[in-house]
Amino acid sequence: MNTMDGVLNEFISEGEEILHRVSDLLQKIEKGGSTKESIGAIYRDVHTLKGNSQLFGFHKIALLSHVMEAVLDPIRKLDIEISPRLIECCLGSLDLLLRMLKGVLTNEQDQSFEKEVIRWVGLLVDAATKQYGASFRLNKDMPAWLENHRAIANNKNDSEQQIIEEVVAIQTPPQLAPQSVPQPDSTSVKPETKTHKEDEEKPVFHKKISPTTVEIQQTQSAQPAEAINTNQIDTSIRVPVPLLDKLMNLVGELVLIRNQFLQYRNKHEESELLSLSKNLDVVTSDLQTEVMNTRMQPIGSVLGKFQRMVRDVSRELGKKIDLTLEGSETELDKTLLEAIKDPITHLVRNSCDHGIEFPEERIRTGKPDNGHLLIRSFHEGGQVVIEISDDGRGLDSKKIIAKAIEKGILTAEQSQRMQEREIFNLIFMPGFTTANQVSSVSGRGVGMDVVKTNIAKVGGSVELSTITGKSTTIRLKIPLTLAIVPALMVKSGGEKFAIPQVKLVQLVRIEKNDTQNKIEFLQGSPMFRLRDVLLPLIDLRNVVHKNSTGIKQGDVTNIVILSVEKEYFGLIVDEILDTTDIVVKPLSSFLKHLIMFSGATILGDGTIALILDVIGIATTCKINTKKNLTDEQHLKAIEQRKLFTDTQEFLLFELDNGVIHSIPLCLINRLEEFSIKDIEQTGDQKVVRYRGTILPILSLNQILGYSKKSAISVAKEKLPVLVIQKSGKLYGVEVNEIQDIVTIDQQIDDSIRDRPGILGNLIHQQKVVAVVDALGLIEQVVTGKPLTRSTTIEEIRTMNREMKNKKLKILFADDVVFFRRHVSKVLTDAGYDITLAEDGKRALEIIDSSGSDHFNVIISDIEMPNMDGLSFARELRKRPKYKTTPLIALTTRFRDKDIEDGMKAGFDTYLEKLNPEKLLSAVSSMIGGNA
Amino acid sequence: MNNMNETRQFSTFYIANLLYGIDVMKVQEITKALPMTRVPLAPGYVKGLINLRGQISTAIQLSDLFELNEKTPDEQMNVVCKISDILVSFLVDRIGDVMELESKNFEPAPDTVPENVRRYIEGVYMIPGNLISVIDVERIVEFITKTGNENQINNTINQ
Asked: Rounded to 5 degrees, what are φ and ψ at A692?
């Protein structure tokens, strides 16, 4: 399923949940009188719905919820009873909101609901005016679609009531003359339930109907929409998180049983038992991984939506704002993601609305007119940190104090004694907002206090730092509680410990009587020299057992080099085990004071290991991490760190000429062994069925010309195959025998390259190892073109880095939903990052608002509404950044004239629709040519 | 039955041959001895961490917490309680019956009971031939959390 649809479905189901919850609450209020909490809850829910629907561009839903929010606001603020009439109107509006939400699925767009929205807005405002008196009015800035009606602009000072009536007048054809609003009328024809029109006139959530009737009516109105639901959202279902927790625990149990079973098996030599247990082993491991995965999502799945939101919000406000996301791949547990979604939405909106100034103001204060918003996420100190920073006007402590005094939060006397930090923290108080004008973008002070409570609920914290006039940064620290982190397992004093890999720089092993690397002592403190940097050493036994036997020179010593902020130190451990993914579980509250442990985890064998908190250890051992390094020193440290990690892993294997060959490990997806009998032929090409596709098997012996025979005839039963991904497709490369994986930190010597396909040589354990240009060879086989020049190792590195760090971005414009889904699936599966547009106009908008982001390839349909492919191509080529970007036409029109027109307009190539292979190869070859 | 004589059910167990009880509603399960992972530097009464079907439970040696100075058997039983979302296993010597006790037999803990036990005791039920001290598990967690934090503060000051 297309990701966008997934998100949309989530929006709809969440919206439905909200509506049901709100209607329950409203009915409860009616029966038992209102409570402050329930009004608050309703208010927040409606606020969320408003935010979400704005995010997705459902402006009518947003408008109606905005009005609901507005009429409920006085009740929340003044703590007064809500009038029955208002409740009735709210219930009616909820009903309409529900139908509009369902309409989203059936593509029944906003238009059909317009009149009804206007009617209910009118009713709500009327009821509110009756309750609060004539002074009640909505705030001025209505969402964009209402702004289109000049009514708003011309009647700024009229009461909302009149505005609405005028809107109705504009909107309603003469024969359906404007209604005097309060009376429910028959102007609106409901598409779904014409037969139940009588019933429909009353809101579904109507209070006076007995509960059973409500049931029936809900089903009646819901039926048509639900029938369509089942067709459209059958590829994902919502599962309660406790169920996932339970599953995870059960899988844990299963793993334990599996381990016991494997131990039992080792004592027996029955072949049947052996193969069965092997299967059990594999399936259990896979199951464990998958169940873990069900809970993890990259943070980008939440942050990604903000691009659009910031774009929309900045337009609405008339500001220029660029959003940059960093570290979107940081994975967070689903529960946590859900929990931080709303707070971050609030914060981003706040930054856009209050933080970043209008362009004129920015220019006046000497800033570029484009405001910049940065969201960074990363791991730090065993937590996930999300930083939202803007280069806006910052917070003004004087304004905050004035506001706080005005709101009665504090007295003038108190404010005198406050520190600046305390003052800024006032904005987290309930009911506080500094914007002079309340707008629809960032609520009415629901923001910051809700942010703080929600983050605190998941055990996180919010920090704020600001430079008045320059910037504001808000740091959310989310605990790892549920997150999975890769960790290095070590042993010390007979116990296992896990060290989070983010803190890990390098492992060093000092051999017995090693004269080059040895531990030195400085005033009795052990030190280690690593590439001319002196690192303090800590013995883990010392930390956790307090009884050290003392570090001795000349012994075999394992040192784990760790980094804390800008500082490095070495931790001496008894044994280095392996790396593994661990699920962090917190320690009980009464063990939290042990700062050298950040939690515990259950290992594969069912035992428990404590997780070391690197910062805690550094603090305990008084390693000064707060040392103020000069920039120069810091740069040096970074440079060193780069040195530490700038080594390359190679896979060594043997070929027919007896020479050991190698391929950089980063290029290899998987190592597989296939049974000879599974290998099939298609034409001359050997293939094997692999993960639902056909994997071509290339023979290095043949390609490099060492032997005519393939390795198959040499190998006994199993054929070792390296699976390599190139341009989104998998290729198998057969070798005689896989030997080893080694880390080599030397440069490849490319002086001897006796044949194309060999990059150069390395020396490993006094033997020469030839480095194979795997990607080049695959290219040669696929295209049939002989290799003219081998890729250099530098290029491979760069490619590898690019592949890891940055997915190639593709923009695809097509007006047909089906093609959008199809193409996006093909490209997403191939590892590209795809953005969709529904026509040329939208595609241009996306390009213009993408800021510093650059699309690597653009694909477009030719026939589209609003702006067709040809005009799009012409427009695109006018933009300097996109003068040479590969532009592919994906179409069904293939006459020569069409193609000629297309090329003239600026397309690079023409492809037919529904041919994923051609599309992928075109994309990859064009990117290759452009890189 | 009147309100004066409500009954409550207790899981009972022995520590150093004395009978104790915990309200059954607070007990999640009772298990035999399970492998434990020691927590270095933790207070002495924290015996280690136990993997309880994928969840981590912290084991507390009650006889150490009560400072009884009695030798404990090699294989102890776990009385696992869920206290404000954290799992705690109390290590006990031997499991007794589940008993239904009447409130008319309840007495607050006498002042002569040593403070380091009394602060964790809700009170005492008198049954023929024996006394059952009722342990308040919430109070235990509350207290040891507090001492833990104080230790940390002391350590910081010492440093």
From this structure: 80, 0
Question: pTM for the complete prediction?
Answer: 0.41
Report phi then psi at A580, rounded to 5.
-155, 160
Q: Return the bridge partners of A462, or none.
A: A476
CATH code assigned to B8-158: 2.40.50.180
A588 to B58: CB separation less than 8 angstroms, yes or no: yes
DSSP track, A815-848: S-HHHHHHHHHHHHHTT-EEEEESSHHHHHHHHH
Fold of A648-802: OB fold (Dihydrolipoamide Acetyltransferase, E2P) (2.40.50)
Cβ-Cβ contacts under 8 Å, B145 against chain A: 589-590, 592
Cα separation values, A62 from A181, A224, B59, Å: 21, 24, 52
Gap between the terminal Cα atoms of chain B: 60
Determine the straight-line distance between the first and last CA of chain A, rounded to whole angstroms: 30
Chain B contact probe: residue of A481, A589, A602, A620 with most B CBs at under 10 A = A589
Q: Any idea which architecture A806-930 has in CATH?
A: 3-Layer(aba) Sandwich (3.40)
How open is the CA angle A388-A394-A395, to the nearest 5 degrees?
110
Count CB neighbours of A756 within 10 A: 17
CB A852 within 8 A of CB A845: no
What's the fold here for domain A489-624? OB fold (Dihydrolipoamide Acetyltransferase, E2P) (2.40.50)
Domains A489-624 and A648-802 share a fold: yes
Class of domain A300-479: alpha beta
Of residues B46, B53, B141, nearest to A249 (C-beta)? B53
Instruction: Give me the sheet containing A371-380, strands edge to edge.
Output: A321-326, A371-380, A383-390, A471-479, A461-467
Q: Which CATH superfamily is domain A3-232 in?
A: HPT domain (1.20.120.160)
Side chain identity, residue A774: A
- Chain B residues with CB within 8 Å of chain A CB: 35, 37-42, 46, 49-51, 53-56, 58, 86, 88, 141, 144-145, 147-149, 151-152, 159
Q: CA-to-CA distance for A43 and A69, rounded, in angstroms?
A: 6
* CATH code for the structural domain at A241-296: 1.10.287
- 3-state class (DSSP) for residue A122: helix
Integer Cα distance of A427 and A433 in angstroms: 7
Secondary structure E strands in A438-566: 461-467, 471-479, 484-492, 495-500, 504-510, 519-522, 525-530, 533-539, 557-564
Which token pair is A354? 């209050």
Angle at A503 between CA A499 and CA A509, to 5 degrees: 70
Q: Let me know: does A741 contact A665? Beta carbons within 8 Å.
A: yes
- Residue A728 CB neighbours (<10 A): 18
List the beta strands (DSSP E) in A825-886: 833-837, 857-860
Place of tokens 């000879």: A676
Task: Report how far residue A53's alpha carbon sits from residue A36's, in angstroms, rounded to the nearest whole number.
Answer: 26
Q: What is the mean pLDDT of each run of 10 residues along chain A (931 residues)?
A: 61 81 81 73 82 78 84 78 82 85 69 77 81 65 45 41 43 38 39 40 41 36 40 62 79 74 77 85 83 77 81 83 86 78 84 85 86 87 82 82 78 74 75 52 56 71 82 81 70 88 80 72 76 80 70 74 77 86 79 84 82 83 50 46 50 80 77 80 80 81 72 64 77 82 66 71 76 78 62 54 60 79 76 82 83 79 82 86 84 77 85 75 67 38
Q: Does A71 touch chain B (CB under 8 A)?
A: no
Domain boundaries, chain A: 3-232, 241-296, 300-479, 489-624, 648-802, 806-930
By the 8 A CB rule, do A538 and A489 touch? Answer: no
Determine, for residues B35 and A607 on separate chains, whether the beta-carbon distance falls below 8 Å.
yes
Distance from CA of B100 to the nearest CA of A (A): 31
